[in-house]
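testing teh design pipeline on a random one, pls ignore if ur not involved
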């Protein structure tokens, strides 16, 4: 047996973070959670921020706890997309990064399209238009607080910012850069045309480096503070979705995936970006991944709807678990009313159940009154939106897919997996749950040559994990419900 190699994954989600230790013995990769912490945004004077200094404190705690396991080969950081920190010329952080759910970008899309026509914008970047994208955050910042950009020297997206705090190196990893809507998708460089049109200074953007590239080693001061050796930090796929993509246990080149967590990212993997008239009409995004591959996908609001509904009920004094919520939804009658999960009203934090009821009333559908009915509306609507997105992906790629690989935290929700199989008329392969952590670790192993290629990485996942299979059960109720979903949401 080969000597064990140890790698550390630092995985930041929108509500929590984890440090996952990966131990590779030459045959299998074992995962162990060594530290977990909450990731709580903070509203100050009307602006919603990420508490980045607290998050870096948690990184230090994770590194201290990992010391007990022995030396690490490498450390890798992945986070959510689009958000960023700004450094001044001396390398100091100007302010806490602003949360993508902050209201500062409201109404910016149409304003930006006056500077750069929508179709040309898409032809350059290949990105799905969403107000939360970095391009529109910076456009809003330039209009509302131009002095901040005047004092800024470097923009670092969240995983790149953590890599900088760890190593002192300012780099832009490829996958996270593709979430900004500022990158030329074909040339894989920052787009001077987009930056110029939106009035965003070009100097802010550092060199773009490929996914799975060593960044540097831990700062000397950090090593002295924590008693650590100068461990290598690797720029894995900084965007957690692309880490998850690397661990999809597909055996074929063509496959359909759903990375299911706070966000649902549904699509396929292509050798190069697909930027076509149909892709533009469908507003499909192209994200970069390992080896320059493109994830051709739709961003859909996912388990956020369930998570925020639970928080609302907790604010009202009722404690309820996710398992209890799933059980309630199972008992409710299916396919009574639908929402478009991506309607703008559901994006901000707050009272999701009340917004759902208002949406259904406005669209002439039965209004879900009980908790069970509200939850069932969410479940049914997510499954229907997945079917709608699959149709768009298949039209754009001119391919048909028999199996949908679901990875991430949503795998634990058996109702959602089974319902997705039925509604989408696809076999669902559910797992691994820890797809992002697997991918983060595998990309570190690809970077140092421990694993040969992406195919070998996915084969390793298949040896370590056994996904659950959900076969579709076709019914007349499902088929008659889909047209009602399209009508009720205005997507027809």
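output:
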């Amino acid at each position: 047996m080969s000597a064990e190699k140890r790698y550390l994954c630092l995985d930041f989600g929108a509500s929590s973070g984890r440090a996952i230790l990966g131990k590779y013995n030459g045959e299998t990769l074992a995962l162990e959670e060594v530290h977990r912490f909450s990731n709580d945004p903070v509203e100050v004077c009307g602006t919603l921020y990420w508490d980045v200094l607290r998050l870096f404190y948690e990184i230090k705690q994770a590194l201290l706890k990992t010391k007990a396991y022995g030396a690490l080969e490498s450390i890798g950081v992945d986070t959510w997309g689009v958000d960023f920190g700004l450094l001044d010329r001396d390398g100091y952080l100007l302010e806490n990064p602003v949360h993508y759910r902050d209201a500062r970008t409201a109404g910016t899309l149409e304003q930006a399209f006056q500077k750069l026509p929508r179709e040309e914008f898409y032809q350059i970047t290949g990105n799905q238009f969403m107000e939360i994208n970095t391009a529109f955050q910076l456009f809003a910042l330039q209009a509302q607080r131009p002095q901040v950009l005047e004092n800024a020297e470097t923009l670092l997206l969240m995983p790149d910012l953590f890599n900088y705090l760890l190593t002192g190196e300012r780099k832009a990893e490829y996958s996270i850069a593709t979430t900004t809507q500022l990158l030329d998708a074909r040339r894989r460089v920052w787009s001077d045309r987009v930056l110029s049109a939106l009035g965003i200074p070009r100097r802010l953007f550092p060199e773009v480096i490929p996914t799975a590239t060593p960044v540097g080693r831990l700062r000397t001061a950090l090593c002295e503070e924590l008693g650590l050796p100068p461990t290598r930090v690797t720029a894995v796929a900084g965007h957690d979705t692309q880490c998850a993509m690397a661990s999809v246990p597909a055996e074929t080149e063509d496959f359909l995936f759903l990375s299911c967590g706070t966000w649902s990212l549904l699509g396929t993997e292509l050798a190069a970006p697909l930027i076509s008239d149909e892709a533009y009409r469908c507003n499909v995004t192209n994200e970069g991944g390992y080896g320059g591959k493109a994830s051709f996908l739709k961003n859909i609001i996912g388990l956020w709807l369930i998570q925020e509904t639970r928080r609302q009920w907790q604010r009202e004094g009722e404690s309820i678990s996710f398992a209890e919520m799933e059980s309630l939804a199972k008992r409710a009658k299916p396919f009574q009313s639908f929402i478009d999960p991506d309607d703008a009203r559901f994006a901000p934090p707050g009272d999701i159940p009340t917004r759902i009821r208002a949406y259904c009333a406005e669209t002439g559908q039965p209004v879900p009154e009980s908790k069970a009915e509200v939850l069932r509306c969410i479940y049914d609507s997510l499954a229907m939106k997945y079917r709608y997105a699959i149709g768009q992906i298949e039209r754009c790629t001119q391919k048909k897919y028999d199996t949908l690989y679901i990875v991430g935290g949503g795998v634990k929700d058996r109702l959602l997996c089974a319902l997705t199989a039925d509604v989408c008329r696809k076999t669902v392969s559910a797992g691994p749950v820890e797809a992002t952590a697997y991918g983060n670790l595998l990309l570190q192993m690809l970077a140092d040559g421990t694993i040969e290629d992406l195919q070998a990485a996915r084969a390793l996942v298949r040896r370590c994990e056994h996904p659950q299979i959900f076969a579709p059960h076709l019914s007349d109720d499902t088929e008659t419900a889909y047209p009602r979903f399209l009508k009720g949401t205005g997507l027809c």
